[in-house]
Amino acid sequence: MTMERRALVRPLDVREQDEHRTVAGYAAVFGAAADIAGQFREIVAPGAFSDTISGDVRALIDHDSGRVIGRTTAGTLRLAEDDVGLAVEIDLPDTQDGRDLATLIARGDISGMSFGFVVTHQEWDETGDMPTRTILAVDLREVSAVAFPAYDDTSIALRSLESARREKRRHNFRAAANRVLARKVSIDLRTRRLVSKA
């Protein structure tokens, strides 16, 4: 499975108490349709993160694994699903990255969050003018404060669409093969009954 990333432009908040700084925002919003490179729409369903937010998730800057600013297992990153989406709170470290990030958010230079994930359950609807992917469950790997909140890695997402289409074709082929087999068995049984009555 391939990791994908999605970013969201939504205000980030920096809270200061004593010498501690906390960043708060949303890494994902439920029910909002996103256009993925004009190839398909994507919607994150409520509950998509419920099985994964208690795991070991990191907070990063710009998806850079060398710039960790929080972690759920350390208690410095808190994640929760609410009515809006995936709520994020990060206790910023007293490091150069932590201090810089607080300044950049306060200035408005960094204004978005993103999440890195692997889809574990999805549904596709190809009945409209553009396919729609509904993400029902993910394996959440990381959340990030990002400089360019845009839908990145669309080539990965497009491979996901093609993979889903292949799976649907395989499923349809298996279903058709099962129907043919059922008809053959039914015909065979009727033929046997006719032969035995004769």
Automatic annotation (TrEMBL):
Residues 12-162 form the Prohead serine protease domain. It holds the Pfam family Peptidase_S78. Keywords: Hydrolase, Protease, Viral release from host cell. GO terms for molecular function: peptidase activity. One of its GO terms (biological process) is proteolysis. InterPro entries: Peptidase_S78_dom, Prohead_protease. This is HK97 family phage prohead protease. It comes from Sphingobium cupriresistens.
